[in-house]
Amino acid sequence: KSTENMRIEKCWYCSSNIYPGHGVTFVRNDAKIFRFCRSKCHRHFKMKHNPRKSKWTKAYRKTRGKEMIMDTTFEFEKKRNCPIRYDRELYIKTIKAMKLVEKIKESRKERFYKTRLMKQQQTQRTLVDKETERNATLLKGPEIPLAQTTTMSDISRQKALKKSEKKMNKIVEKRKSFIDKFSGNTDVSMMDMEDDQEEIVL
């Protein structure tokens, strides 16, 4: 079944939708009807809690300015207890108008939420800017004069040159030692060969 043919009630406590076959109804002694979407809302009602003080209700959000309160689209949702004679054309027009009103209401809600979030972002940015201005000394490094910077750069260059010279000297020494070892081994091998030849001649 489509939801167009159903009567969707609103919860008395959290003002959420109550579909047919769901929720709890409570009738007081003075014949006033209270409808609740679930047992949670019914429990809060029995404990006489104020819905404006619980954060998960629509009443709380409206009082804190998180949702729209004043808008012309809300007037169409009001119940009118005046009897109207049945007219098919009028009913068709009202159903079409209800669909248009819902679309307009959703677009206005989105616009309202966007403006609210933009204000929050602006406040957050201002707070961040204030903190940066207050603690600007922590963000900046220690101030060094130009003369010291030039001397520091020269010293760093000299250190780098010394390190490179030491590395080159080590490499040269290693190569020399390797060459000396290789040349010494060749001399010894040649002497051994000459001794062997003398023994053979004898």
TrEMBL record:
Signal peptide extent: none
Cellular component GO terms, alphabetical: nucleolus; ribosome
Record SMART domains: TRASH
GO BP term (any one): ribosomal large subunit biogenesis
Subcellular location: Nucleus
The protein's name: 60S ribosomal protein L24
Species, as recorded: Cryptosporidium parvum (strain Iowa II)
Family in the record: Belongs to the eukaryotic ribosomal protein eL24 family.
Key words, A-Z: Nucleus, Ribonucleoprotein, Ribosomal protein, Ribosome biogenesis
GO molecular function: structural constituent of ribosome
Domain TRASH: 11-49
